[in-house]
Design a protein that fits this description.
By secondary structure, the chain is mostly helical. It contains 6 helices and no strands.
Length: 107
């Protein structure tokens, strides 16, 4: 299974959109959560990501859910195995293995 990848550009766009919706400048937002204005700018440009603690502060200050913030920035590909088909011979062998295991536990 692959690691989840955060699209920093999409993440930054959401932060900027929420900041503007809350009528905050980068400076005002930075002061409210204890970051520099430059760091907020880097987040919005998709260069940096905040720490988990600062992410929660951002979410609370901007009055938006983490789901909203990450809705376009996560690689949401779900890897599921495809259908598995067995031949009659394979199914017979699988049944024999199961029967053997079952018989060994019954003793």
């Amino acid at each position: 299974m692959e690691d989840t990848v955060i699209n920093k550009k999409a993440f930054g766009r959401k932060i900027k959109k929420a900041r503007i919706k809350n009528n905050l400048t980068q400076f005002e937002l930075a002061e409210k959560i204890g970051l520099s204005q430059n760091f907020i700018g880097d987040i919005e440009r998709g260069i940096k990501l905040p720490s988990l603690t600062k992410l929660i502060e951002l979410s609370n200050t901007l009055k938006c859910s983490l789901d909203y913030i990450f809705s376009e920035s996560l690689d949401n590909i779900v890897y599921e195995p495809g259908e598995v088909y067995y031949t009659d011979k394979q199914l017979a062998i699988i049944k024999q293995v199961i029967d053997t295991i079952t018989n060994n536990f019954e003793k």
